[in-house]
Structure formats: C-alpha cells, structure tokens
Design a protein that fits this description.
binds magnesium ion; 39% helix; 24 helices; binds adenosine-5'-diphosphate; alpha/beta; seven-stranded parallel beta sheet; single chain
Length: 718
C-alpha cells in the first residue's frame, strides 16, 4: 500500500479543511450527474425510457453494463457464412428489387462477393434511403445476422451498412445491453457512447500497489473498456476493467460504513455501568433462565456500554429467539445508571406488544415504563411527552415515527431499534448524526444475514447473534403438498379450528403487481369464508394501516380463526395460539421469506405445523428450498443456503431489507473483493481519518461518485 501518512490530521484535531478538499460534489463529477437528456441525441421520450431502465442521469448510463458482446471481426466470404451467425461481409451491391405495389413482401437487394450471393431484405423500406446507403454497383461492408431463407443466404435489416472507408470505425466487439420495451439496442448503445464522451479523468483513489497487482486500469479507462470492449472476455465479471469498477463500488460502500463506525467510536458516550440491581430483580421475576446466547449477547452489550464511545450493535436472531429480553437487559443498564432508554418498533401493534410484555417485568423491578404511539393524542400524549422530558419515565416504548418527531428525553442513554427492515445505512447515519449525543444504539433484526452480506450491509456495526431458540420450543413440522390437495387441507383446518387453534394463510406473491396479490388474497378469503364460516380475516398491503392493525388485533385477541394475508403480515407479531401456517404457491417465495413466514408459528405450547402448498411440477430450486426448510429451522443455515440458491442480489428481497444494492459488483463473482475493500477502508481511515491526504481527496470523489456522500458529512472537513 502506498503511504498516505503525510497527512498531519492526527497531530492537530481541529485543522481547517485543506484547500485541496472542496465542499460538496466535486465539479469534475457534474457532467456525470447531469440528466441524460442533456446528452446529444437524447430527447424527452428517450429520457423516459432510460429513467426506467438505467436511471435518469449520465452516470446511470455508464453503470448499465453490457450483458453480452457481438463479434464483428468474423469476416467470412458469403459462401462460408453460416445461418444464425453474425457476419461482417464485404459485398458489391446488386440491382434493387423494390416491394411491388400492394405486396407485403420485403424490399430486396441481392449482393455478391466472388464466392456467392446474399440478399438483404428490408420491411417497410424507404426506397430513397436504401438507394442512398446501398447504391447499385458499389462496394459496402455490411454486418448482421445471416439467415437461410428458401435455401438462400439472406440478411434482414443489417446492423451496419458502411462504405469501405467507414468500415475502419466498426468496433471489433459490440456491447449488447439489457433492454426495456420500446428501447432498441442501437439507440441505447448510442446513448451510452454519448455518455462516455463525458467521462472525466478522475484522480486515482485506488491504492497503487493493489491496482498494479490486480492489473486494474485507471477509472476512466475501465469505464471505456467495459462499454467499448476490445476482447471477448471484456464481459467477464473478473475482467480487470469490470473488477475495478466492482471494487470501486465496494470500496465506496465499505468506506462509508467505516466512516460511520469511526464516527461512532469517536463520539464520546458516557461509560455506562449499572449495578445489576434491576436486572437481578427482572431475572428473578422471569419464569425462565436466559439462554447461553442471550447471556452472551447481554455481556457483549454491557461491555460496549462500559466503553467511553457510542455503541452501534446489531442483534440478529430468528423470530422467537428472545431478542426482547436482551433489549430489556440493555435498557436496564441505562436505568440502573440513572438514565433513560427507548425501544422503537416499526408498527403500532408491535410497540404495544412490546410494552405489554415488558410492563409486568418493569413493574416488578420498580422501573417506570410508558408507551407512546400515534394513537395517543391530546392530553394523554402531552402527559407522556412531559414525563419523558422530566425524567419521570425510565423506559419509553414507541414507534419509529415518534422518535423522529418531538419527543425529548431528559437523559436518553440507550436506544433500541426493533425489527427495522428498512433501517439502512442512511437511517443509521441519521440516527447517529441527529440522535441525542452519546446515545448507545442497539438494532435488532429477525432477518439472519449471511456473513458475506453482513459486511456489505452492516460493516459499520458490531454484531451479536442469537443462534439457539429458548428451550422448550417445539419444532415446527413442515410439510409440502401439491395445490391439488387444497380440499384436504381445508378439511384439516376445519378440525384444527374446532380444537381452538388459529391459522395463518399466506397468499401467493405476484411480483409485478400488488393489485393481483390483493385479488388472489380476496378470492381465497371469500373461498375460506364460504368453507369454514365467518371467523376469517383478511389483511393485505393495500389496506390502510389502521384497518390492517384492527384485523391483526382481532386475530391476536382470538376473534378470528384464520388470517388470510399477503406477505404483509407484520414481522414479529406474536400470536402464540396461532399454530398452523399455510403458504400457498410456496414455490414463488424465496427461502428466507418462507423461513420468516414459518417463524410466525411455533411460539406457543401447542405442536405447530407449516404447510407448503405448491404448484406442480416443482422446479429444481424450489425442490431444494423446500427440502432445506424441512431439514432445518436454523435461520443462519437457511440464509447461507438461500444465498447459494438465489444469488445475493435477490436474497431477502434486497429492496425491503435495507441491504445496499450493488450495480457493478456481484456478490457471487466478487465476494473476495468485499473483504479486501473492507481492509482497505480500515487502513485508509487509520492513516488518514479525515481523508485529507491526496488519496483522501480522491476517495472523497469516489464517495460522491457512488452517492455515498452522506458519509462525507462525518468528516470534520465535510
Ligand atoms: P424475538 O423478538 O426474538 O422474536 P421474543 O423476544 O419475542 O423473540 O421472544 C419470544 C418468546 O420467547 C417470548 O414469549 C419470550 O417470553 C420467550 N423467551 C425469551 N427468552 C426465553 C428463554 N430464555 N427461555 C424461554 N422463553 C424465552
Ligand atoms: Mg421481537
């Protein structure tokens, strides 16, 4: 690694920003962040299509990488040209045969070389245009796919028609891009080539030794090389140009996370130590002992809290693994130390559920707990807000929204964020920058994340994992049945309901359309109601929040026997009496998702079951998914398997999970680069914590390039 130790940042903590380090997005990036419509040849109609396919900006075009190549170097004689191949032919244009009036036949132009004849065909042809580009008797270079029609060689609508002079400009390899309806490859290629004209030379942020070792070209060369390929391997993910861009993206990601982490470690928190008095009281009151995993997680949290900097820790554990108790212990440390704690849940119903669980335990320990959600209005709300401000509440439970608003604490020391699927890096940064100074943060998630992904998503956090379930939990019996046996299943449900059991029924997911989702769910709801009587409920994503919570509440209260749902059923909702989970069209769900859904049952004392109804015939991957589910209930094992089966991009439904989406890096093809980028990022900040060296300035450009600029605010000279 090259040295960047010339920086004097560490010797004087309040150095003014160096003049080399401009504020805001660097000017040389402006052309890349302009709207694509600013490029020559791109009008509003094309801009719309591009927005849909790649994104609105010039940079989005550059990030749209080719998925294949056309080899234009294949230059056979006509006699050697094979059907289905792309060939570049050197021909003499013969006499045109225009489409006869009223006919639908194509316009045909026979062409020859010394070995044979090939006919160019054009549908809906414009004769004047063809006479201009293909004058009779002249030589032309044409390139396109060769077909055989009635035993004769033919090429319809060649991709290129060039004079012998122009032929030198024909690229040897032509990129092929993923397209969208209404957009041709030709038009997209032109747009991307126009974007390439705007590519500036950027200062090198890559460590020189590493770049040399990996044979990485400079950034602008890499961008050019992927879009103007010069060899057939240019579309391989490990091609140096592609790998470089992937590495850049991961370095930006890791550097942003490392900056958050460094900021946390630098932000003074108060060292929190409790005397254990309240925790002991709560433990004494619990009907069970904490599992080893819970004890370990609590110990890790206690150690963090003792440190004089802020905690940012992720607690991962399957649904039902007992995260709430761990959270309570963390919060009690704060209370023992004379401070306050907060627990934020993503929904009203979960907030109330937490409060209900925690209230008797807190009461036993003499801890003052209150709950505040959107439902609390007027005087009641005012009273709680004031009590929190006056320090008369020790633990406040509420929804996330609450804490973004007006609530002020006298002394908030620990904040727990529960089940936050959309709690991405951006939100964490927000929390840490505007959150109360010194507040320690514990984030809890029920989505087990494979280790490789963990680094990319949560590289800024310390992680605790609850891998074992509390003892006494009965395994969920998982069975797979073809949809044809639905009647049998419904008959079985009638019996189970008769015994007082409750059922979740999850309806198929229709990727493109929540309207179709809802229609399917409504149909099933009506069908089950007809078959089983009135106590059937329905929740789906197009219902209003309050409406949905009402149905969920009725299910929780036991007023509903069967809850028909699209996948919106709240993560973490605890209905211990629900012991049957039916998943319709299980083959359409991902493994992790099936696991999450199954986790809603098996929480009470009754034996639970999960029925996976699938449509035959079952594909290989779906078969493997179902087999994995039957074999294990360990979310971490399932997450790793899911990664293998699906590829990282799709794991967990990336969009909802708060995982970063990579555009250039592929977690399968570039997995080893993640670790390298992480190490790189750490070393960078060790040597140049404020990114003030020359390389540091270049790295700021990198962060802007990948729109990780929130992280830049964490620099003193940001
Ligand atoms: P999570 O939030 O991880 O989904 P919870 O914290 O809601 O899980 O715990 C699920 C259930 O397990 C709760 O009813 C809780 O009381 C119970 N539980 C928690 N820890 C233990 C334990 N150590 N032994 C037995 N039951 C436990
Ligand atoms: Mg929970």
């Amino acid at each position: 690694m090259t040295s960047s130790s010339g920086s004097s940042a560490t010797s004087s903590p309040r150095v003014p920003p160096s003049p080399r380090v401009p504020k805001g997005r660097p000017e040389n990036l402006f052309p890349l962040f302009a709207e694509a419509v600013k490029l020559p040849g791109i009008g509003p109609r094309l801009q719309k299509l591009l927005e849909k396919l790649t994104g609105p900006k010039v940079i989005d075009l550059l990030w749209h990488l080719p998925s294949g190549l056309i080899d234009r170097r294949h230059r056979p004689h006509i006699i050697d040209a094979r059907a289905g191949q792309v060939a570049t032919l050197d021909v003499t244009v013969g006499p045109h045969k225009p489409t006869p009036r009223g006919s639908r036949a194509p316009y045909r132009i026979p062409c020859t070389d010394e070995t044979g004849e090939i006919t160019l065909t054009f549908f809906h042809a414009r004769e004047d245009y063809l006479r201009r580009t293909l004058p009779e008797g002249e030589r032309r270079i044409i390139s396109g796919e060769v077909e055989i029609y009635n035993g004769l060689a033919q090429m319809s609508h060649p991709d290129h028609i060039l004079t012998p002079d122009e032929a030198q400009d024909l690229p040897p390899y032509e990129p092929v891009y993923p397209l969208t309806a209404g957009l041709s490859g030709k038009v997209l290629t032109k747009a991307i080539q126009a974007a390439l004209e705007r590519v500036p030379e950027l200062p090198e942020w890559m460590d020189a030794a590493w770049a040399r070792q990996q044979h990485y070209p400079a950034w602008h060369e890499a961008v050019r090389a992927v879009h103007q390929p010069e060899a057939p391997d240019a579309i391989e993910p490990r091609h140096p140009a592609r790998a470089r861009l992937a590495y850049d993206e991961m370095l930006a990601n890791q550097l942003a996370l490392a900056l958050v982490r460094a900021r946390m470690k630098r932000t003074r928190g108060r060292p929190l130590t409790g005397d254990g008095r309240l925790r002991r009281k709560v433990m004494d009151h619990l009907p069970f002992a904490l599992t080893r995993g819970q004890l370990l997680a609590v110990a890790e949290i206690e150690a963090d809290l003792k440190e004089p900097y802020r905690m940012l820790r992720l607690l991962q554990g399957d649904v039902g693994s007992g995260k709430t108790m761990v959270a309570l212990m963390a919060m009690l440390v704060a209370v023992e130390a004379g401070a306050q704690a907060a627990l934020m849940a993503p929904t009203e119903i979960l907030a109330r559920q937490h409060a209900k669980t925690l209230a008797p335990l807190c009461e036993a320990a003499g801890v003052r707990l209150a709950v505040l959600t959107g439902r609390d209005k007027g005087k009641a709300r005012e009273a709680i807000v004031q009590a929190a401000e006056a320090g008369e509440i020790d633990i406040l439970v509420g929804t996330h929204a609450l804490f973004q608003g007006s609530v002020a604490f006298r002394d908030l020391a620990v904040a727990v964020v529960d089940e936050q699927h959309r709690f991405g890096v951006r939100e964490r940064m927000e929390l840490s920058s505007k959150g109360v100074a010194g507040t320690d943060v514990l984030v809890m998630t029920a989505t087990p994340i494979p280790r490789t992904l963990q680094l990319t998503a949560y590289g800024d956090m310390d992680v605790s994992r609850l891998t074992e379930k509390p003892s006494g939990r009965k395994p969920v019996v998982t069975r797979a049945l073809p949809l044809e046996r639905m009647d049998e299943v419904i008959a079985g449900l009638a019996r189970a309901i008769g015994e007082g059991r409750q059922v979740y029924w999850v309806c198929p997911l229709v990727e493109e359309s929540d309207v179709l989702d809802v229609a399917a769910a409504e149909d099933r709801y009506a069908g089950l109601k007809a078959a089983l009587g009135a106590r059937v409920g329905l929740v789906h994503g197009r219902m209003k929040g309050a409406e949905r919570e009402e149905v969920m509440g009725a299910f929780q209260a036991g007023d509903i026997d069967i809850l028909v749902a699209t996948t919106v059923i709240e993560v973490g909702v605890d209905v211990p009496n629900a012991s049957i989970m039916v998943i319709e069209h299980a083959e359409r769900f991902g493994l992790a998702q099936l696991h999450q859904l199954r986790g809603r049952v098996g929480r009470g004392s009754a034996a639970s079951s999960c029925l996976l109804l699938y449509k035959t015939p079952l594909g290989e991957i779906a078969k493997k998914r179902i087999a994995t589910l039957r074999d294990t209930e360990d979310g971490f094992v399932i997450a790793e398997e899911d990664l293998i089966l699906r590829g990282a991009g799709e794991v967990l439904g990336t969009r909802q999970s708060g995982l970063p989406q990579f555009r250039l890096a592929s977690l399968e093809a570039h997995a080893d680069l993640i670790a390298a980028a992480r190490d790189d990022a750490e070393l960078i900040l060790q040597r140049d914590p404020e990114l003030e060296s020359e390389r540091g300035a270049a790295l700021r450009v990198l962060l802007y390039l990948f729109e990780r600029d929130e992280a830049i605010r964490f620099l003193r000279a940001g």
